[in-house]
């Protein structure tokens, strides 16, 4: 059924239509109405942006949200996902789910019978990348023909960026330390898509090579509250992958800097760049709201 589990669920035309709808909703050129609709939020992990932007998006569209976090439902006490999904699907009109395994998200989608939206898994973060592409399009007035450089950890955000950039015709170079490259299957899929859209996909080691000629520099956290020993190991391995003035100097003169947040200043990005003239990070965070309104309207709006 309909839903947004991966950016690969959207074809190129659907991606562009969603970004256009988000842009129009943001500017008040179009309205969408979800009066009477209820979105359930199933969040197994902490969230500022995703949780708040989905909640406010539903309120602004005239709908409502209900918190279905596992600590408050029987899922936290072992009720199977498939049973939970079948029941929730009879009460609410959509689910936004933040969990670990992509397969768990897929199980919700298989059994709920209502739209399920990926609010972050270990494999992908599609809603984030819709906001990123909206921000890039706003800034440059186009997407096709641009180049984005992602430096750091080849994680869920990198996966969705690979797919989203390839679909949007944005060339993407991902530079990571050895052992932290994105899933090769995602890289291969992005290359296949890029073959159709004229974009280029590169998986690299050297962050400076990635940044050369880039219109967008992008990074994400290196360490998310892991064990202390692992944190120290990562800080060393990722040392040369920081977005700083030197890396920015390698990119195009009009290049912008994005970060999905939360940021660790002094680790993956310097305070100077975050607060500098090329940063579009706060617009990017705002655009989570507009991009997700478009997703909610498209998936739950009905006609
Ligand atoms: N970028 C992002 O998903 O932020 P949160 O974890 O705060 O939702």
Automatic annotation (TrEMBL):
Pfam families the UniProt entry points to: OTCace, OTCace_N
InterPro entries xrefs: Asp/Orn_carbamoyltranf_P-bd, Asp/Orn_carbamoylTrfase, Asp/Orn_carbamoylTrfase_sf, Asp_carbamoyltransf_Asp/Orn-bd, Orn/put_carbamltrans, OTCase_ArgI
Subcellular location: Cytoplasm
Domain Aspartate/ornithine carbamoyltransferase Asp/Orn-binding: 145-298
Reaction(s) the record says it catalyses: carbamoyl phosphate + L-ornithine = L-citrulline + phosphate + H(+)
Main location per the UniProt record: cytoplasm
Enzyme class label: transferase
Claim: Cytoplasm is one of the keywords in the record: yes
Domain Aspartate/ornithine carbamoyltransferase carbamoyl-P binding: 4-138
Pathway: Amino-acid biosynthesis; L-arginine biosynthesis; L-arginine from L-ornithine and carbamoyl phosphate: step 1/3
NCBIfam families: orni_carb_tr (TIGR00658), PRK00779.1 (NF001986)
Name this protein carries in UniProt: Ornithine carbamoyltransferase
Originating organism: Gloeobacter morelensis MG652769
């Amino acid at each position: 059924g309909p839903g947004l589990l991966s950016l690969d669920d959207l074809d190129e035309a659907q991606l562009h239509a969603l970004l256009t709808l988000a842009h129009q909703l943001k500017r008040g050129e179009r309205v969408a109405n979800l009066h009477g609709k209820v979105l359930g939020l199933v969040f197994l992990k902490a969230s500022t942006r995703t949780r708040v932007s989905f909640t406010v998006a539903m309120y602004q569209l005239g709908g409502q949200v209900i918190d279905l976090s596992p600590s408050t439902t029987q899922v936290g006490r072992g009720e199977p996902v498939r049973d939970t999904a079948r029941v929730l699907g009879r009460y609410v009109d959509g689910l936004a789910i933040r969990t670990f395994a992509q397969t768990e998200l897929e199980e919700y989608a298989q059994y709920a019978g209502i739209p399920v939206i990926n609010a972050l898994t270990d494999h992908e973060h599609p809603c984030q990348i819709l906001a990123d592409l909206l921000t890039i399009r706003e800034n440059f007035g186009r997407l096709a023909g641009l180049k984005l450089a992602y430096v750091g950890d080849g994680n869920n955000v990198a996966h969705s960026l690979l797919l989203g950039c390839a679909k949007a015709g944005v060339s993407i170079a991902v530079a990571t330390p050895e052992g932290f490259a994105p899933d090769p299957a995602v890289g291969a899929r992005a290359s296949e898509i890029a073959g159709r859209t004229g974009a280029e996909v590169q998986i690299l080691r050297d962050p400076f090579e990635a940044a050369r000629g880039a219109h967008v520099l992008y990074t994400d956290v290196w360490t998310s509250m892991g064990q202390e020993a692992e944190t120290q190991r990562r800080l060393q391995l990722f040392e040369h992958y920081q977005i700083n003035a030197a890396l920015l100097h390698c990119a195009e003169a009009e290049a912008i800097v994005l970060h999905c947040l939360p940021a660790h200043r002094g680790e993956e990005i310097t305070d100077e760049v975050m607060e500098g003239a090329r940063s579009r990070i706060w617009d990017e965070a705002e655009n989570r709201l507009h991009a997700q309104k478009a997703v909610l309207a498209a998936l739950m709006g009905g006609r």
